[in-house]
Amino acid sequence: MKKIIKGIRFTPACYPDEIEEKIQKYRKQHYKLPPRKVLRTPEQLEGIRESAKINTALLDHISDNIREGMSTEEVDKMVYEFTVGHGAIPAPLNYEGFPKSVCTSINNVVCHGIPSKNDILRSGDIVNVDVSTIYNGYFSDASRMFMIGEVSQEKRKLVQVTKECLEIGIAAARPWARLGDVGAAIQEHAEKNGFSVVRDLCGHGVGIKFHEEPDVEHFGRRGTGMLILPGMTFTIEPMINMGSYEVFVDDADGWTIYTDDGLPSAQWEHMILITETGNEILTY
């Protein structure tokens, strides 16, 4: 016999009724909502947190060992061995054809740099190391900037302001805010310091898959975009350029993204969980 369902619940059954009622109010006002499937259950969060622990420990391991004179191929080997040694899988490896276990992006490489034995870390370089982990089917993601040897004051400022942009973006990512609030906060801080925000790349939902909804842009207008709901997990990963925000993809490998004007770029990335009262940083 066909069962008649009275009304349609948006949140999983384990979510408090207060959250469900609030979402339904926003729904009636035609706010843009994320898909229901990105609201995590306690079981999913347990798996995501275990993956995140490995991901953060991996970045700590890199922090302890990255050095001048090292090739990015050596960084890739370090990432692979640490990850599989903890019973996990490097998410980038063979993802849509990406050939390595980590992205290493030096100076004017914005992101998706492919490790190579020919890319040697030299004094004065800034490098982003972006690691992503699959553990028992759950995904986590984060990146850090590293300054090699004697780095110029201009590059140091870029790295510092980019980290501040990340922190400001995380502070804006609160329940019942809008994704446009996050982007606007980041953009305002970057431009106030004379830098620009890359438009063509963004943060993203992550946890059950490597890349999920929503797209998290690092520029925008307050009061616009998708409503941020408790239970969402996504990355905030501003890419801040010293010069123009324009970028291009290397034709030779189809992955490496460079600044159009050849000036340096920096990026920091954390993965967060939106809670009922704010957010929780899962990876760093």
TrEMBL record:
<keyword id="KW-0378">Hydrolase</keyword>
<comment type="similarity">
    <text>Belongs to the peptidase M24A family. Methionine aminopeptidase type 1 subfamily.</text>
</comment>
<feature type="binding site">
    <location>
        <position position="269"/>
    </location>
    <ligand>
        <name>a divalent metal cation 1</name>
    </ligand>
</feature>
<dbReference type="InterPro" id="IPR001714">
    <property type="entry name" value="Pept_M24_MAP"/>
</dbReference>
<feature type="binding site">
    <location>
        <position position="269"/>
    </location>
    <ligand>
        <name>a divalent metal cation 2</name>
    </ligand>
</feature>
<protein>
    <recommendedName>
        <fullName>Methionine aminopeptidase</fullName>
        <ecNumber>3.4.11.18</ecNumber>
    </recommendedName>
</protein>
<feature type="binding site">
    <location>
        <position position="130"/>
    </location>
    <ligand>
        <name>a divalent metal cation 1</name>
    </ligand>
</feature>
<keyword id="KW-0479">Metal-binding</keyword>
<feature type="binding site">
    <location>
        <position position="141"/>
    </location>
    <ligand>
        <name>a divalent metal cation 1</name>
    </ligand>
</feature>
<dbReference type="GO" id="GO:0046872">
    <property type="term" value="F:metal ion binding"/>
</dbReference>
<keyword id="KW-0031">Aminopeptidase</keyword>
<feature type="binding site">
    <location>
        <position position="141"/>
    </location>
    <ligand>
        <name>a divalent metal cation 2</name>
    </ligand>
</feature>
<dbReference type="InterPro" id="IPR036005">
    <property type="entry name" value="Creatinase/aminopeptidase-like"/>
</dbReference>
<feature type="binding site">
    <location>
        <position position="204"/>
    </location>
    <ligand>
        <name>a divalent metal cation 2</name>
    </ligand>
</feature>
<dbReference type="InterPro" id="IPR000994">
    <property type="entry name" value="Pept_M24"/>
</dbReference>
<dbReference type="Pfam" id="PF00557">
    <property type="entry name" value="Peptidase_M24"/>
</dbReference>
<comment type="function">
    <text>Removes the N-terminal methionine from nascent proteins. The N-terminal methionine is often cleaved when the second residue in the primary sequence is small and uncharged (Met-Ala-, Cys, Gly, Pro, Ser, Thr, or Val). Requires deformylation of the N(alpha)-formylated initiator methionine before it can be hydrolyzed.</text>
</comment>
<dbReference type="GO" id="GO:0004239">
    <property type="term" value="F:initiator methionyl aminopeptidase activity"/>
</dbReference>
<feature type="domain" description="Peptidase M24">
    <location>
        <begin position="46"/>
        <end position="276"/>
    </location>
</feature>
<keyword id="KW-0645">Protease</keyword>
<comment type="subunit">
    <text>Monomer.</text>
</comment>
<dbReference type="GO" id="GO:0070006">
    <property type="term" value="F:metalloaminopeptidase activity"/>
</dbReference>
<dbReference type="GO" id="GO:0006508">
    <property type="term" value="P:proteolysis"/>
</dbReference>
<feature type="binding site">
    <location>
        <position position="237"/>
    </location>
    <ligand>
        <name>a divalent metal cation 2</name>
    </ligand>
</feature>
<feature type="binding site">
    <location>
        <position position="112"/>
    </location>
    <ligand>
        <name>substrate</name>
    </ligand>
</feature>
<feature type="binding site">
    <location>
        <position position="211"/>
    </location>
    <ligand>
        <name>substrate</name>
    </ligand>
</feature>
<dbReference type="InterPro" id="IPR002467">
    <property type="entry name" value="Pept_M24A_MAP1"/>
</dbReference>
